[in-house]
Specification:
With about 425 residues, the protein is α+β, with helices and mostly antiparallel strands. Helices cover about 15% and strands about 40% of the residues. The protein has three domains: about 15-210, P-loop containing nucleotide triphosphate hydrolases (Rossmann fold, 3-Layer(aba) Sandwich), CATH 3.40.50.300; about 225-325, Beta Barrel (Elongation Factor Tu (Ef-tu), domain 3); about 330-420, Elongation Factor Tu (Ef-tu), domain 3 (Beta Barrel), CATH 2.40.30. It is globular, with a radius of gyration of 22 Å.
Length: about 425
């Protein structure tokens, strides 16, 4: 049964500076304070799942928007805030730009979730705790994931600065500079912060405004959106006549989508023949944060109301799909040929290693966009891999696919492949 079609509300007048223009990834090792820093910037604690609260770590991707505002009277960087009224002089502040934070889990067993988040990022904040040696293993893996995703600009937050003395802070700074030497983040600003005590948050906001310009978008291209979440928003016991269709959440990568558009979703839904079939539906609503839109463009995270049966979208069942106009999406692959690029990794022991070859029969965890699948290597070598996929993917030729293999019983990032 499809969800009920509702008359959409009239477009609400929204200051364009308060519509998210970009996605900023919050990346780094477990327990280095990414979620606390996200809360300091956005006011939202993104660990909302019951298991996250019980274990004290992020498990799912967390999302939160924040608007950078500036006081017209105070000097920089104190002028930068997220408050509507200036803390120092009580003047009304003015919005400058809005961004969405993608808070990635730092635990090694959740690296595949981080790779999903990396596909949505325009820029990244690399969080490194000042009271631990740098780099830690997931610091390296998260940074590699961001580089695979093509992120060009970074800001480094040297967090927990309140837990160390000046000598320790300087040594940690030296280690960070050494770690980033020769990378795209070599000249990234390194900002000492205490997220817990809200120290230097104004300096970080100033750096975000200065270092992360609104990305240039081509709105003339055919729309393409990665699905990162999917929901059934109907409460238990809702009567049939009041049911609404399933909701798809994610980020538009190119083009634009409008209320009333007919859209296609690929690979789609698995049928009785065990094959996946594309789904066609209609957009009934568009939301970004708590703002209702008539048209959504790249930048920020968007929730799309549809006419889909909510049974298809509940519990993130459609994560990994791609949305676009009918017959304008990339092809679906059940088998892939990849140009293979191995990466150097660091283990917890500090040992470095590199997987030069992936041999036939090796299972591989593959991430492309927000899709995650397991492939079995059918033909391997030092520069090419052919693999059969357990779940199909929808992807453009030339896309980078992150490759993980089991090491000591855990999936670990070992390289990436370029889809031929």
């Amino acid at each position: 049964m499809a969800g009920k079609k509702k008359e959409h509300e009239a477009e609400v007048s929204v200051d364009p500076r308060e519509i998210s223009q970009m996605n900023i990834g919050m990346i780094g090792h477990v327990d280095h304070g990414k979620t606390t820093l996200t809360e300091a910037l956005t006011g939202k604690f993104t660990d909302e799942h019951s298991e996250e609260l019980k274990r004290g770590i992020s498990i799912r991707l967390g999302y939160a928007d924040f608007t950078i505002r500036k006081c017209p009277k105070c000097d920089v960087p104190q002028a930068y805030t997220t408050l509507s009224v200036c803390f120092y002089c009580s003047s009304q502040t003015e919005p400058i730009k809005t961004a969405s934070i993608v808070d990635c889990p730092g635990h090694e067993t959740l690296m595949a979730t981080t790779l999903t988040g990396a596909a949505l990022m325009d820029y990244a904040i690399l969080v490194i705790a000042a009271n631990e040696p740098c780099p830690k293993p997931q610091t390296v893996e998260h940074f590699m994931a961001a580089e695979i995703a093509g992120i060009e600009k970074f800001i480094v937050v040297q967090n927990k600065i309140d837990l160390v003395d000046e000598e320790q802070a300087r040594e940690n700074y030296r280690q960070i500079k050494e770690f980033l030497k020769g990378t795209k983040a070599e000249n990234a600003p390194i900002i000492p912060v205490s997220a817990q005590l809200r120290v230097n948050i104004d300096v970080l906001l100033y750096a975000i405004d200065r270092e992360f310009p609104a990305p240039k978008r081509d709105l003339t291209k055919s729309p393409l959106m990665y699905v990162a979440r999917s929901f059934d928003v109907n409460k238990p016991g809702t009567s049939i006549e009041k049911l609404v269709g399933g909701v798809l959440g994610g980020s538009i990568m190119q083009g634009k989508l409008k209320v009333g558009d007919e859209i296609e979703i690929r690979p789609g839904i698995r049928g009785e023949d065990e094959k996946y079939h594309p789904v066609i539906t209609e957009i009934t609503s568009l939301m970004q944060g708590n703002k209702r839109l008539e048209e959504a463009t790249p930048g920020g995270l968007v929730a799309i109301g549809t006419l889909l049966d909510p049974a298809f979208t509940k519990a993130d069942a459609m994560v990994g799909n791609i949305i676009g106009h009918v017959n304008e999406l990339p092809p679906v692959y059940y088998d892939v040929v990849l140009e293979y690029h191995p990466l150097e990794r660091i283990l917890e022991s500090g040992e470095k290693f590199k997987v030069e070859r992936i041999t036939p029969g090796t299972p591989l965890l593959m991430n492309v966009g927000t899709a995650r699948t397991v492939g079995v290597c059918m033909k391997g070598g030092s520069d090419t891999i052919e693999a059969k996929l357990k779940l199909p993917i929808c992807a453009q030729p030339g896309s980078k696919i992150a490759l993980s293999m089991q090491i000591n019983g855990r999936w670990r990032l070992v390289g990436y492949g370029v889809l031929k």
